[in-house]
Specification:
One of its GO terms (molecular function) is thiosulfate-cyanide sulfurtransferase activity. The chain is an alpha/beta fold and 105 residues long. The chain has a single domain, classed as Oxidized Rhodanese, domain 1. The chain has a five-stranded parallel β-sheet, covered by helices on one side.
Length: 105
Amino acid sequence: MNVITRDELKAALGTVTVVDTLGGDYYAQQHLPGAISLVESEVADRAAALLPDKDATIVTYCTNPSCSNSKAVATRLGALGYTDVRRYVEGIEDWVQAGLPVESA
């Protein structure tokens, strides 16, 4: 599974689909710019509608390296045939600590 760094993701915003794997209140409070919310339990039901292009670059993230949500969602997307799924392992904590912008719902 491929990973993407903060700087790579920052440069790629607008050209990749960013997926927040925390969902719920976490997503509402703050998420990366333009991120969509998709949690592991919803992948089978919602992925096709939210992510119609299986060859597009998709970046999953969660809180920090100890959070396994982004890996779980990325693995499920790969199993569904998505070909370019990457993980921002450091997560939103790293993004915020770097002073980068977030959005809220």
